[in-house]
Amino acid sequence: MSSWSVAGSAPVSRLAQNVEAEQGAEESRIVRAAVALLRGDVAVLQTGGRTVLAAAEGIETDESARRLADPLEALALGYRSQLSVPLRRDGRRIGALAVLDRDLRAFDDADIALLRALAGCLDRAMCSVH
């Protein structure tokens, strides 16, 4: 089982809490699927003020999700490979979904398509709760 954490601001109303919880659960599922399916060390999803991190089983990460969401920070922390796709809503970029690995590796077209599909799942989930 992967380990993960969610960081973000507190919602202001009960309706916002329900939407936030539903969206957070979907974000967590997607980021855990990304790290497992793409066999990365960690996966990071960032949208607005929220950041979600999943680490593969056996991978300990002391880094914060926000630091790993920055490609230059991730490189400085020893991550040598990253595949990232934008998250879009209503045609505009609202964040990114990334898989990182400490080993140098090449991602192929199938990896890119898979990460894009996972990002699309998040877009559909966000549209369904708003």
Can you tell me about this structure?
The protein is 43% helix and 28% strand. With 130 residues, the chain is of the alpha+beta class. The protein has a five-stranded antiparallel β-sheet. Helix 1 packs antiparallel against helix 4 (109-129). The radius of gyration is 14 Å and the shape is globular.
Measured by DSSP, the beta-strand proportion falls in 25-35%
Strand numbers in spatial order across the main sheet: 1-3-2-5-4
Radius of gyration: 14 Å
Q: Based on DSSP secondary structure assignment, what is the total number of beta strands?
A: 5
Q: Helix share of residues?
A: 40-55%
H-E order:
EHEEHHEEH
- The average pLDDT is 79
What is the molecular shape? globular
How is the biggest beta sheet arranged? Answer: 5 strands, antiparallel
Number of helices: 4
Weakly predicted, low-confidence segments? 1-19
State the end-to-end distance. 30 Å
The class by helix and strand makeup works out as alpha+beta
